[in-house]
Amino acid sequence: MEKPSIPQGTRDFGPAQVARRQHIFGVIRRTFELFGYAPLETPTLENLSVLTGKYGDEGDQLLYKVLNSGNFLVKERRGEITPLVTAEDLETGPRAVLPKIAEKGLRYDLTVPFARYVAMNRGTLTFPFRRYQMQPVWRADKPQRGRYREFWQCDADVVGTTSLLCEAEIVLMMARVLSELGLDDFTIKINHRGVLRNVYQALGGEGQETDLFVAIDKLDKIGREGVSRELLAKGFTEPVLDTLFDLLAVAGTFEEKLDRLLAGFVTAGVEPDGQRPTADSADDDEPAHYRGLSELGQVHALLAASGFRQFERLEFDPTLARGLSYYTGCIFEVKINNVPGMGSVSGGGRYDNLTGAFGLPGVPGVGFSFGVDRLYDCLETLDLFVGAGETPTRVLLTHFDAASGRAALPLLAELRQAGIPAELYPDASKLQKQFKYADAKGIPLVLILGPEELAAGVAKIKILQSGEEKTLPLAEVVAALTV
Amino acid sequence: MEKPSIPQGTRDFGPAQVARRQHIFGVIRRTFELFGYAPLETPTLENLSVLTGKYGDEGDQLLYKVLNSGNFLVKERRGEITPLVTAEDLETGPRAVLPKIAEKGLRYDLTVPFARYVAMNRGTLTFPFRRYQMQPVWRADKPQRGRYREFWQCDADVVGTTSLLCEAEIVLMMARVLSELGLDDFTIKINHRGVLRNVYQALGGEGQETDLFVAIDKLDKIGREGVSRELLAKGFTEPVLDTLFDLLAVAGTFEEKLDRLLAGFVTAGVEPDGQRPTADSADDDEPAHYRGLSELGQVHALLAASGFRQFERLEFDPTLARGLSYYTGCIFEVKINNVPGMGSVSGGGRYDNLTGAFGLPGVPGVGFSFGVDRLYDCLETLDLFVGAGETPTRVLLTHFDAASGRAALPLLAELRQAGIPAELYPDASKLQKQFKYADAKGIPLVLILGPEELAAGVAKIKILQSGEEKTLPLAEVVAALTV
Asked: Which pLDDT score, from 0 to 100, does residue B204 have?
């Protein structure tokens, strides 16, 4: 018989792991709900017509496709069966065969299903719509350390508003979740696509904005030299690159950086693209010549007004680019500084058009996501998990023989009634075996209820970690354990 | 553009539905944990070698198969590409094509993955092992009312013990979950495969036990007449059927039925198959000539000793058969009496050999399952859901203009700090629109913070349902709302 196994890139989560993961999900869920985000769950299976073409060519390759059920090779109509896949299709390859045998695929991220949901329910939803979603996604990627084929995303998005309050609240939620998890040494990096555009304009270039974004995005990994090499190859010149790195290397506090970039843009003659804020917007004093800088300033001011006290952990990083994604406004990324090499544990940004691909244009929004698997690894690396054992059981009642086992049942019921997870060892085995069981499972307390104890109307309580023992009247046990 | 849709038999769960489902999951999870069951989660994708052949031919048909990634039509080895699927395979059909293009499938139930997990981790698990698992499963079934292609199961099993305490605790857990959900009008039916076997022996038949079980299982649906017709066709005779229905129609209390069936078996000369209980077992006084009756009596006695007070809702039903499943001991099934036509919301039983198919024989256990979708439908039918709205938000702060919006931020932060989900309406829209928003989302309280209120250092609190208004000093708002 073949040994059973699970597919590469997937995982079983045993009791201790589930308990730890539930701790993380719980902190994120509570934070999302405190900020008024409502839960949404979408199906694992989506129609391939919904998924295909939304993640680029590479994404389409990485989609898991599900075979049509029944005889997927033929078409049946009015009792007549005709072949669906032909020998010619086999020659042509998956491109010809796939659409005939697979209509459905597995969820690849939480954003496209959310957009699909908003478009399908446009008539009944009330906007602004704040939703969060915590579900697994699947990618047929090469498995490697820290990269799985089944992994969890926790997204929160608000759509139907352009208010910068939402950006400020994303920073508040990120900081709250990380602090509650005990991951205090974090940096939230923030930038704005408008700033990147202004930087590009300051270089006097045209039409190569995307090349610039793609290169800058790699600054972290390949350094200034690598980025320079890439941009030189694309036709950028040395003096242009000097201007670029001068602008990007701007130093100081959040607000100093804003001021210095503003001066840089003015000096370079960048055309202002910002509108003066209307009376409704959060800050009337902002000069707001440039939309990116102005909005970053407003987010900063909203955070200050909200009593945010961790500005030393919020960094305006003009080199943050977030790849080729659909972001149009503020962008975010979070790193845990004392877990090197981990990559970002959270990220997000503002977009103009969530549901355009589904026939509903003009739905702007802003959202972000936590990577649960990376948060888990950070907490494990820093040894920040507490008390998650192999069982929820807090008390094991010993089982001497049939009579004393049965005599333990009322106490067992009472413990559970008091909300204390408890077990009676199911069989009247040797006491040593029962203690070994409690030890292996990490059950902290053992209640010894032998014939002697029962005759005296008492129970012996043993704290496994310390070895401490205490004898108590049966009637006082539950009260003693609930204190 | 095609309108986006979701696959037949799958569902989106919007905010109110998720909140209600979380309520059900929460009650089940807390109960499982109080009884010492530890959480386990297995991957959505399992190898088809693990799944195939475990659910019968029909089950194999209903498995969702996932296409191998990349070019699934060819094999690549040392850079050489050879076709995998041939025109001949197309002629032969799915039987020939499937094994070449799909290695993985979607989880079909929670029992096989659990068995696979136990077999894979035999070396490190401590037995008895109590696990619960609450995850979706997928079946390519014809969708119809109440039957979905993606649905949730909540299983609890304990393996590595034959103790009847576990059976008694299943009854306690079933009763606890249903009572906590407010589904008080339930019946837990219990039977024992040994009783069914003894009934068959009482008829003097041989070799047709399965025919009898299959027919009896339908008694609920097709009645005595239907069952008779089916059994007559299988060669059972009229007098035999009379004996059968006399035995099955046994009346009285749980214990009276046990006694009367015992008398019936003795009269019919059924060979005793029960062992006298050992000193370890829970009841030394039981006559225990027949294992099935004896064990049911012991479970009843263990429940009485545990202080179980709902015996009027526990019915010994000798006609309960639970289909062709692998059960060998006690079997259970639960119905909600005041929701007619719903089918069972929970069921389970004891089995001798969980992991035999994975090379680990001799692992006995007992388990049961809740059907979350049916529980949901029962709660909805009986209008037992309370307070699940479209948002977790309890308080909406109004947003008059930029200045008063910003002035509201410290109060917003304070509310959240106190654990009260709250939102500031993101834009300075018309007040009427903001109230409409609160109303549509079911937000119970609106805090009006206009320039006048701010100047006076107060907030107006409006309770939407009653229309009641109250004005409070800003500093007292949070305290007033946390009481």
From this structure: 86
In which domain, by residue range, is A328 found? 15-45+106-381
Mutate to test the interface with B, among A31, A148, A306 (most CBs of B within 10 A): A306
One domain for residues B250 and B368: yes
The parts of chain B modelled with pLDDT lower than 70 are: 1-2, 275-288, 324, 388
The number of folded domains in chain A is 3
N-term to C-term CA, chain B: 52
User: Mutation test of the interface with chain B: which of A51, A126, A372, choosing the one with the most B Cβ atoms within 10 A?
Assistant: A126
The annotation status of A374 as a binding-site residue, yes or no, is no
Mean pLDDT (whole number) for A125-152:
93
d(CA B439, CA B445): 10
**Residue A346 β-bridge partners:** A334, A370
Q: Percent of chain A, pLDDT > 70?
A: 96
Q: Is residue B9 part of a domain?
A: no
Same domain, A64 and A37: no
Does B460 map to a domain? yes
Q: Are residues A122 and A72 in the same domain?
A: no
Is there a single domain that holds both residue B44 and residue B177?
Answer: yes
Residue type, A451: P
Does any domain span residue B67? no
Give the C-alpha separation, B398 to B437, whole Å: 11
Q: Give the distance from residue A32's alpha carbon to the nearest chain B alpha carbon, in angstroms.
A: 9
Q: In this predicted model, what pLDDT tens digit does every residue of A386-442 receive, in sequence order? A: 876 889 999 999 999 999 999 999 999 999 999 999 999 999 999 999 999 999 999
Cβ–Cβ < 8 Å for A420, B156: no
Residues B361 and B443 in one domain: no
Which CATH number do you get for residue A430? 3.40.50.800
Runs of H (alpha helix) within A182-237: 193-202, 209-216, 219-233
Residues A162, A91 share a domain: no
User: Which of helix, strand or coil describes residue B24?
Assistant: helix
Burial class (CB in 10 A: 0-12, 13-18, 19+), A442: middle
Tell me, rounded to whole angstroms, the distance of Cα B131 from its chain centroid: 14
Listed residue (A181, A174, A177, A146) closest to A386, CA to CA: A181
Q: What pLDDT shows up at residue A280?
A: 47
Q: What value of ipTM does the predicted structure carry? A: 0.92
Tell me which residues of chain A, numbers 153 to 212, contact chain B at a CB-CB cutoff of 8 Å. 158, 161-163, 165-166, 172
Residue A84 and residue A118 in one domain: no
Q: Within a domain: residue A454?
A: yes
Of A423, A449, A376, give the one whose Cα is nearest residue B126.
A423
d(CA B226, CA B212): 13
Residue A113 has pLDDT above 60, yes or no: yes
Residue A225 has pLDDT above 50, yes or no: yes
Question: How far is Cα A195 from Cα A294, in angstroms, rounded to an integer?
Answer: 10
Q: Residues of A numbered 205-234 whose beta carbons fall under 8 angstroms of chain B's beta carbons: which are they?
A: none
A306 with B45: Cβ contact below 8 A: no
pLDDT, residue A324, reads 66
pLDDT 10s digits, A194-223: 999 999 999 987 888 888 888 998 888 899
- Yes or no, beta carbons of A39 and B19 under 8 Å apart: yes
